Amino acid sequence: MAIVVNMPRLSDTMEEGTVATWLKKVGDKIEEGDILAEIETDKATMEFESFNEGTLLHIGVQEGETTKVDELLAIIGDEGEDISGILNGGGNASAEAKEETESLNEDTDVTLSAVEESQTETAQELPEGVIVVTMPRLSDTMEEGTVATWLKKVGDTVEEGDILAEIETDKATMEFESFQSGTLLEIGLQEGESAKVDSLLAIIGPAGTDVSGVAANFSAASAPAKKEDAPKVEAKAPSKAPAVTSSAVEKSQKPIPTPVTENGRLYVSPLAKKLAEEKGINLTKVQGSGENGRIVKRDIENYEPAAGAASVGKFVPTGQEDFDDVDNSQMRKAIAKALTNSKFTAPHYYLSVEFDMENAMAFRAQFNSIPDTKISYNDIVVKACALALKQHPQVNSQWFADKMRLNNHVHIGVAVAVPDGLVVPVVRFANEQSLPQIGAEVKELAGKARNKKLTPDEMQGSTFTVSNLGMFGIDTFTSIINQPNSAILSVGNIVEKPVVKNGQIVVGHTMKLSLACDHRTVDGATGAQFLQTLKGYIENPVTMLV
């Protein structure tokens, strides 16, 4: 019997997953315990193990594709088994859900089938080669337009790029360029008349074609349906050739003022204007080769200024705008959601301090002189925080709607930068571990993080977080609390600077730290007392060994 395998929830915050790699293909035999695929979650890329045996009959999500948790991922069953019923039924969709969906569709004012039926019917009525031109959307706020001037009349031949009319929008009067060639067979709006965007503006097609029925059908299809009519449809008359749509116009047209000469108006296509502006060409110097001396694209492309003369007009930079769109990964989406939630739900405040690091530097040098031993300044900070948190449980707390939890254990999250964002593996019972143990665990967890091999358990349960950007040369910064923690410590670089000791200015080494606190759980005085305790440990690290 076929078994539907859904997208698993591989972390506590996972809402959707991306298939990084399929390790099995359709037709392969699957044993219980086999790895089916590698799934990219919001925190790591993890192997997904099969709990069933059989033949892989169907793959529902291809490599690189994303789907929600509990949506169809694959189907496993007997070789040759018919699974068409499952696929047609939408995977794990229940009969009750289907009935509800069907009911909603029946109650919907506009259904897809009705729109398709209406558009198909209209399309069948269009004679060969006939194109319906609708009122374009020439600005982002335009809802209707007024025909100021028609530059073509019924019966005129229209070439692609010819100006059909001047349209008055809510922002400016702009030229409207034709994107089709043919004969202007019908004008839907007279000069001075207004209509909504996507209403009938004109009809272009082969000369002599009778389009009276097309205009009537388009008007009927666009008109609001009566209350008793079902269902209501807003239909644009399609055609066998691409019609002018508002989106196409938005992409191709910009409101560029029409140049004016001493003899009156200078006729130029919108594309030619745009090219001239980019090239810094004075349009009054260009000879038009289009209809009625109109300047068109080829005139700008072929324009050569007189020998020794420079182009007239304002300087236009020669650079080109360029960008790359990168789809947000599951990790990036999760980071955005979690930090936005933290920033706008927890009332953050910040306490900044500067510690003397002379003793810490000497301590580390002596500690690392022991064979096969190496600790970092970050390890010292983690250990010091763990000991200080035991003395200040409110800083080691969590906020809930009906209570505040004071944690007696200390699990410190250590923020680790990875290529696609940030993860926070957790050093458990950090106060009970030695400095070398903390150093070894942080190194191991950071390596797993960069290779996307962290398990969900290794990223859960922190009671406090440390974020260190000192190794990147950052002197001071503030962080967003990693909820449900009540605080996060931002650690800066160790800086060599003049300091005052015993009334004398000497060369010293200091480090700036900033504690972000949730004011719901940690009062200002409580946070300050924690930092005082932390100062004692970091400025005299030998006390951590007592």
Describe, in plain words, how this protein is organized in 3D:
The chain is of the alpha+beta class and 546 residues long. The chain folds into 4 domains: 3-103, OB fold (Dihydrolipoamide Acetyltransferase, E2P), CATH 2.40.50.100; 112-252, OB fold (Dihydrolipoamide Acetyltransferase, E2P), CATH 2.40.50.100; 256-317, E3-binding domain (Dihydrolipoamide Transferase), CATH 4.10.320; 330-545, Chloramphenicol acetyltransferase-like domain (Chloramphenicol Acetyltransferase), CATH 3.30.559.10. The protein has 12 helices and 28 strands. Strand 20 (397-399) and strand 21 form a beta hairpin. Helix 10 crosses helix 11.
Question: How is this structure best summarized?
Answer:
The protein is an alpha+beta fold. It contains twelve helices and 28 strands.
Describe the secondary structure blueprint for this structure:
Elements: E1 3-6, E2 16-22, E3 29-30, E4 35-40, E5 45-49, E6 54-59, E7 66-68, E8 72-77, H1 84-88, H2 95-107, H3 112-125, E9 131-134, E10 144-150, E11 157-158, E12 163-168, E13 173-177, E14 182-187, E15 194-196, E16 200-205, H4 212-222, H5 246-252, E17 260-261, E18 264-265, H6 270-279, H7 297-301, H8 330-345, E19 348-356, H9 358-367, H10 377-391, E20 397-399, E21 404-406, E22 412-414, E23 416-418, E24 421-423, E25 426-427, H11 435-450, E26 464-468, E27 487-501, E28 504-518, H12 524-539
Parallel strand pairs: 22-26, 26-27
Antiparallel strand pairs: 1-8, 2-4, 2-7, 3-6, 4-5, 6-8, 9-16, 10-12, 10-15, 11-14, 12-13, 14-16, 17-18, 19-28, 20-21, 22-25, 23-24, 27-28
Helix pairs in contact: 10-11, 10-12
